[in-house]
Amino acid sequence: MGRRGQAYFQFQQFLIAQDRCAMKVGTDGMLLGAWTSIPPQARVLDIGTGTGLVALMLAQRSPQAQIDALEVDLKACEQARENVACSPWIHRIQVHHQSLQAWIRRARVPPSRAAHRPPYTLIVANPPYFPRSSSSTLNPRTQARQQTSLSLEVLFQGVAACLHPQGQFSMIYPFQDHVAALAQAQVLGLHCTRLWQVKPRPQLPPKRSLLEFSWRFRVPERAEISLEHSRHCYTADYAALLRPFLLRYAKASKSALVPAEIDAGHLKPSSGSLAPDRDPSP
């Protein structure tokens, strides 16, 4: 969940413009980007990048990661490219207007040896999770969350086709449906190696599950994280995850880089002042 009327969101080292994206900056994406384990010199595939948030967070965390980010929505893809272009990691993130299915076909049938893409050591996804609806009155954000062209089955089949033998796949999914994700993984021979339950508050039931999968079996790491004690009173665990990213945790304003400003819905280089710290609500 996030501030859906907000045109942009300023992080410590990058800025996300989101006025052309159905899915805005929100807690799900931030949790995934901060929680995911990153292998050394990772080759990363971000499935459904949206604004580019998770790809940018991973690039900030891993100076050597090379990232391919896929997005099927043209407007979101263009905005993600602009967000990446105005970040410090423009040379390490490539945003592609392509579906996962098309990307797999391209990788399996390369036109030349130079076009061959090795398997990814890390794959991440914040996938849609609403069943498809025929309603034409749904808002763009709800439509973006629907399992139209990327069902859970298709997602895991794509992951299985692209994941390195020593690689890992991380995702965030509704807690009430995470058993379905575990079942899809099992069918394809993937093992759950980490499983965190995400609660809005300690006394409330979990709303999300953070899951990590690998081809290698090991006893999964299980944990629980709560986001708030009360409204806007965040827990120490949540703060520890997001400390490198959110402005509220910057030691001083000079430590926050401002790579861009908004100009009629587009980004351009700027040396302007910091935007206010507007954290999405968990």
Question: What does this molecule look like?
Answer:
The protein has 282 residues and is an alpha/beta fold. It has an eight-stranded mixed β-sheet. A two-stranded antiparallel sheet has the order 1-2. Helix 2 (53-61) links the parallel strand 3 (43-47) and strand 4 (66-70). It has helices spanning 27-35, 53-61, 74-85, 100-108, 140-144, 152-162, 178-187, 236-242; strands at 8-10, 15-17, 43-47, 66-70, 93-96, 120-125, 163-174, 191-199, 208-214, 221-226, 228-230, 233-234, 261-263, 266-268. The longest helix has 12 residues, at 74-85. Helix 1 (27-35) packs parallel to helix 2. Mean pLDDT is 84; it is low at 110-115, 132-138 and 252-282.
Tertiary shape? globular
Query: Percent of residues in beta strands?
Result: 25-35%
Mean pLDDT: 84
User: Helix count, per DSSP?
Assistant: 8
Question: Quick recap of the structure?
Answer:
The chain contains eight helices and 14 strands. The chain is α/β, with parallel strands linked by helices. The longest helix has 12 residues, at 74-85.
